[in-house]
């Protein structure tokens, strides 16, 4: 290993070598292992890296086994990658869904020591009762039953001993390895490992700081207060810290089968309807949503309430991204292949070399196969359709932004929640009202004024920085340090409308000047160039009018959908 490579991995050089040895043994990253100076196994001048027995396995099985062998943080990375079939392929993603981090509980006493150190008092002074043996242990934390001083039943989530340091060290090493693999192995570089590790890092750093989960619980409690049937456990901030989270203990029946639901008085369709409406509210109204709606995170205490658990996995959609999602969903519901293709090109930031026409044909084929015209929402397999879209994107070297990938996973799980219980309620039938409300808010005067104010502020910033930025850009272009690639997509044909308007206005002004000054040649006193300019203005204006009449806005799409459903 060279000195430069040693410095890149710092004190973790030995661990980096060990990781590459494991990957190479499974037939992964052999080229990178050789470049790093890892010794191969077996005979021969260069040694044999891969185990012949292991390389007979398919790629998903090899990667799953390798990550399992590397430990907890790497298993969590595999679980995260299982949501990115658009990058790693469906077969590998499916294999990674089977990864489970089996982390034993800490020795008795360590959790109590941590609580005392972080909360500033012995456990006996903080709680009326505390069970020293946890009833559950996950990848980064374990959970204990407790009773507060006022008699409230509680659960206490405590990070495993040394979890933060171990996770941070692993993440730093992952980032260094990802950068090295990208430079050392072109086959791995096409999966953009640095990008995937960066996304994973954000998620894991939140997981080892329980204050994020406490904040999420309090925010969800406020934003879901209008749903009087939905219960969010109450957290206790005075008994919580970065490594400790104390919350109300909730009791209820599991929600895994139809009999679980009906046994406490709920009708399956009613429960599915309530849950679906709550999630659409979170996604489209708040932008912050619970990202793991699987049955294990629900309890039903009685026939009127549902308890929602586990707030460590959340998703967030910004305002502009919500608009992208609305357009995407409308294009699918309306079976508008051209619009859906344009939206995918925009949100996936397609490179200039992407064959848009070929992509449109592939989208058309996907829609015909998974969303046939005469089918009903109950006949469609949302999971299969989403999987096929991921495969389609991967074929064209496109990948979804992480926030959209998470949302797709959530929508699939939401559909699967009802399907597992045997519900006939589907997500699709509740989408139209939320899309309508979203468009109404977008068109409101208050929102328009807010956009104008934000735009004015942005333009002031751009105007102030533009001279300096242009100077830097010109210098970089002269030095050959910068190249420009322009890839412009315009689903609303806004650019065409602007260009047509400018041409029509300019031609009309030119015509008036030419004709008023009788610029020659002339015919019976009329300027021929002026007449020609007037003709161009008329033709362009007509083209603009036709385009405006023929192009449907998003609002028109939504209201057209509502009218047809009625």
Give a brief outline of the structure.
By secondary structure, the chain is α+β, with helices and mostly antiparallel strands. Helix content is 60%, strand content 8%.
Folded structure, characterized:
There is one protein chain. The chain has 566 residues and is an alpha+beta fold. The protein is built from 26 helices and 13 strands. Strands 1, 2, 3, 4 and 6 form a 5-stranded antiparallel beta sheet that branches. The protein has a 4-stranded mixed beta sheet with strand order 5-10-9-7, with no helix packed on it. Helix 5 runs antiparallel to helix 6 and helix 17 (319-333) runs antiparallel to helix 18 (337-347).
List the helices and strands and how they pair.
Elements: H1 3-9, H2 13-25, H3 30-35, H4 52-55, H5 59-70, H6 72-81, H7 85-88, H8 90-96, H9 110-119, H10 123-126, E1 129-130, E2 136-137, E3 141-147, E4 153-159, H11 163-184, H12 186-189, H13 193-207, H14 211-223, E5 230-231, E6 244-248, E7 253-254, H15 258-262, H16 268-286, E8 288-290, E9 298-300, E10 306-308, E11 314-316, H17 319-333, H18 337-347, H19 356-370, H20 382-395, H21 402-421, H22 428-442, H23 445-479, H24 494-516, E12 522-523, E13 526-527, H25 528-550, H26 554-565
Parallel strand pairs: 5-10
Antiparallel strand pairs: 1-3, 2-3, 3-4, 4-6, 7-9, 8-11, 9-10, 12-13
